[in-house]
Fold:
Amino acid sequence: MQHVMIRASILLLAALGVVALGRAQDTQTEEKPKPAAKSYGPIGAEEENQNPAPETLQPDGRPLTGFQQPTVGMNMERHSYWVPGVSYYNFINSNGQTQGGGSDWNSTSYLSGNVSLQENWSRSQLALNFSGGGYFSTDSGSGNGGLAQLGAVQTFNRERWQLTFLDQFAYLPESQCGFGAGTGLAAPGIGGTLGVGSTGLGGQFDPGQSIFTAVGPRYTNTFGTQINYVLTPRGSVTFGGIASILRFTESGNIESNNYIGNVGYNYQITREDTIGLQYHFSSYHYLGSAQAIGDHSIQAVYGKKITGRVALQLAGGPEITHYRIPVGSGTNTQHVSGSGTATLSYTFARGSVSLGYLHGLTSGSGVFVGATTDQLTVSGTRKLSRVWSGDAHVGFAHNRQSTTVQGLASPSYNTVYAGGSAARPLGRNASFSLGYTAYRETSDNAGGVSFTTHQISVGLSWHSRPFVLH
Structure:
């Protein structure tokens, strides 16, 4: 675990190093932003609200055919600040590890230090969320270990172009699908309105871990860069590239390297509606396996954004997959199918709803050498009373092995998680939460095990007041 924590520390230090570089560049070439002033309003003034008011958000300027998740808007925070915090969660689980079966219950405690940082310059911005710590379990199959998550995005804006660098790292004891659902462990940083927003990838660009069966701790790292260039007042082109890895600390899993190239054209037809066309090529390579997969996808894209209310994105089109080693009978090295994604974020006065759907080829989640995946996630939040807020979450994934012999049934896994939680603040800087989530996996794979795990969570989290940088 030590080398993984060192890797996470290096990534964090590298991201923080961009702060100094960006400040030096802006000092030489750009006008410095105004210092913190009362006219901006206090940082975190919306902390007690379920959602920020639309007038406190600026439109999401991410390109439609880019690789980041669309949002309902970005905070209009002109301060640069960082916020440290700490969280403790205790999970009471049935059936030991999710694959364990039986009726025993066990307890796992997670203690994590968290930090969110936002650096604003006149023409660039750095957003960083990091969480790292350890867990202690009464389950001998799980034991004790560490965890770390990092999301960092550096954006540079000029008159006609926007350049983005993104890094997403996770070292977790189990599948990322449903991990910490309904709690602050699900994502890095301190969360809430003081968090620096989404630093995540869209579903079709994420390395993907939607099968619970993969054994032991694992780590992923995804680095991406893209540039969006404005051609006309309504049109722009987007170019991007992503490299990601999936590694396990225990044997018996399939490790992979993924590379993605993406190009797209965006055209704004109204103030709220945009259409586009994108092509991306994905290359999957597996350690210890001669098989490699190349995947071509062309998709028509539609997006609708109403700041503070709606962010909708739909994409679909043909997908052509090539295999280095023939699959099926004869010399079949090509398969033609379809791929598509859908994301929706909708906010209302007392809550929000989000939805994500993916259909297409994925790396295989450490279980398959390539998989055809259907994955759906739905979550919602709502203010229940003056102090209590609620969360509900559901996730489903169907993974079918893509490299199979023609005429034989393809091994597959169905994974489901569902549950809810309730939370309330303890003063201005702390919160308490209770939650429940059920995990279920079934398989028609030879030797596959079906199981159900029940999980009860209790959590406490605290963060300091923001430290203003400038």
Notes: Residues 2-43+62-468 form a domain with the Porin fold (CATH 2.40.160). The chain has one domain: 2-43+62-468. Residues 167 and 223 are 4 Å apart (CA to CA).
